[in-house]
Amino acid sequence: MLIGELAERAGTSTRTLRYYEAHGLVHPQRSANGYRVYDEAELRVVREIRALLDVGFGLEDVRPFVACLRAGNASGDVCPDSVLVLRRKLAEVDDYLDRLGAVRRQLHTQLSHAIAHREETCPKKRASAP
Amino acid sequence: MLIGELAERAGTSTRTLRYYEAHGLVHPQRSANGYRVYDEAELRVVREIRALLDVGFGLEDVRPFVACLRAGNASGDVCPDSVLVLRRKLAEVDDYLDRLGAVRRQLHTQLSHAIAHREETCPKKRASAP
DNA sequence: CTAGACCTTGTCGTCAGCGTCAAGGCAAGC
DNA sequence: GCTTGCCTTGACGCTGACGACAAGGTCTAG
Q1: pLDDT tens for residues A3-62?
Q2: Quick one: which of B84, B27, B94 has its CA closest to B61?
Q3: Ramachandran region of residue A34, left (φ > 0), alpha (ψ -120 to 50) or beta?
Q4: B77 class by beta-carbon count within 10 Å (0-12 exposed, 13-18 middle, 19+ buried)
Q5: Which of A72, A92, A129, B36 has the fewest beta carbons closer than 10 A?
Q6: Are residues A90 and B104, on separate chains, in Cβ contact within 8 Å?
Q7: A55: nearest CA in chain B?
Q8: Which fold has domain B3-121?
Q9: pLDDT for the residue numbered B129
Q10: What is the predicted pLDDT for the residue at B119?
Q11: Residue B111: which of A56, A86, A113 has the nearest Cβ?
Q12: Would you give the distance in Å from CA A60 to the centre of its chain?
C-alpha cells in the first residue's frame, strides 16, 4: 500500500508518516518510481506508535516498542526495554498525578478563600451598589 | 529598584521581566537614562505571576490576577474575573486528573500483561541459557 | 493531450516561555 | 581615561510533533 492509504488506515497524515520515517521508526520499501510501499506489519507499527503517543509518550520512548514488534512479538510491550520504559512512564505518571493533586488542592483553597472573601465583603446578596 | 534587583528578589531573570512587560503584565517607570524602575507593588505582581505560572497557568490566565492586585486588593484572587479563571482551571485540572488516571490504569495493565507474558515464556528463574 | 490525483523532497511556521548572544549606552571607582 | 558592571533594544535558538506550502515527477482516464 502507498503512503496515502496507510495514512488513512492508520488515522493519521502522510506528513506524519514521513516524519516517523525520518526519525527511523518506519522503514517502507520503495517501488520503481520511488514511491513508499508499506505492508501490513508497518500498519501495525504505525498504530502502535500512535497509541503510545496518544498516551503521552515521546517518539524516543516508542522506539523499544517498535523494535519489539519488529522482532516478531505479537505485542510491543513484552520486551525488556519496553518494560523498562513502561515502568519509567508509570513512575512519571504517578509523580505527575501527585503534583497535579497538590495543584488541585491549592486551587481549591485559593478559590475557597476568594469566595469567602467575597461573602465577607458583600454580606448580603447585593453588593454595595444600591 | 532596577531590573536586576527585581529579578533577584523575585527569583527570576531580567529576560523574563522584559518578556512580561512586552506582554503587558508589568509596567515599570523609566528613569532619566531610560532604565526601568520598579516599586514594591511590581515585585508583588511579579511574584503573583510566578506563583500562578508555577501552578500551570498561562500568561493569559494571569492577567485578571494582576489587574486585581493593581486594583488595590491584598490578594489577586478575590476579583470576579480571577474567580472565573480559578474555576475554569480547577475544572481543567480535574479533567486532566481523570485522563491521567485512565492513562495510569492503562499503563498498569500493559505492564502487568507484559510481565505475565514473560513469566509465561520463562517459567523458571533463569532463561534458556544454562 | 490534458486534467487530476497521486507521489517526491525541501523548507518554513506553529505554540510558550523564556535563554542566549550581539552591539552599544550609562555610571562609578581608580 | 579605563575598566567593570549595570542597563538598553533586537534578534535568533530551543523543544516536539507535526501542518502547510512549493515545485516538480508519475500514473491513469478521458
Answers
A1: 999 999 999 999 999 999 999 999 999 999 999 999 999 999 999 999 999 999 999 999
A2: B84
A3: left
A4: buried
A5: A129
A6: yes
A7: B103
A8: Multidrug-efflux Transporter Regulator; Chain: A; Domain 2 (1.10.1660)
A9: 41
A10: 76
A11: A86
A12: 12
According to DSSP H, which parts of chain A are helical? 3-10, 14-22, 40-54, 59-70, 80-121
Question: Using one digit for the tens of pLDDT, what is the confidence trace for A99-116?
Answer: 999 999 999 999 999 999
Mean confidence (pLDDT) of chain B: 92
- Alpha-carbon gap, residue B1 to B47, rounded angstroms: 15
> Which residue in the block uniquely carries the three cell numbers 495543584?
A103
Interval B25-38 mean pLDDT: 96
CA trace torsion A80, A83, A89, A92 (10° rounding): -90
Query: Which residue in A53, A95, A19 sits closest to A65, CA to CA?
Result: A53
Which residues, 6 or more positions from A69, have their beta carbon under 8 angstroms from its beta carbon?
A41, A44, A45, A48, A75, A76
A65 to chain B, closest Cα gap in Å: 12
Q: How many contacts (CB atoms, under 8 Å) link A and B? A: 82
On the question of pLDDT at A129 being above 50, the answer is: no
Q: What is the DSSP string of B65-115?
A: HHHHHHTT-SSTTSSHHHHHHHHHHHHHHHHHHHHHHHHHHHHHHHHHHHH
